[in-house]
Design goal:
This protein is mostly helical. Helix content is 67%, strand content 0%. Helix 1 crosses helix 3 and helix 2 crosses helix 3. The longest helix has 17 residues. The protein is elongated. The N and C termini lie far apart (36 Å).
Length: 98
């Protein structure tokens, strides 16, 4: 259980920083305290199901990714045209080959 908590905390912290978000801003979006976000990131506490789902929406990743069950993150292509989706897929393939 401790490993899951630490893995979750590391992923959450990485996602938050990648999105240029402070703990305070994330706490406001989640309707929790900054101390609660800090507890998540340090592995002291795991979020409730509701908060976990909110985090997956905020960062556009699956709950499995947040919990460390999978290393595959998701990329939302909502609102893109078919051609734009093709271009994104080609770029991903290109980066994977390198």
């Amino acid at each position: 259980m401790v490993d899951i908590m630490l893995d979750f905390g590391k992923r959450l912290c990485e996602l938050r920083k990648q999105n240029h978000m402070t703990q305070r801003v994330l706490s406001e979006r989640l309707c929790v305290t900054k101390a609660t976000v800090s507890a998540y990131e340090t592995g002291v506490r795991l979020p409730s199901y509701d908060v976990l789902i909110k985090l997956s929406y905020i960062f556009h990743v699956s709950t499995d990714y947040l919990l460390g069950i999978t290393n595959k993150s998701q990329l939302s292509v909502d609102g893109l045209t078919e051609r734009q989706i093709e271009i994104v897929a080609m770029l991903i393939s290109e980066f994977k080959e390198k």
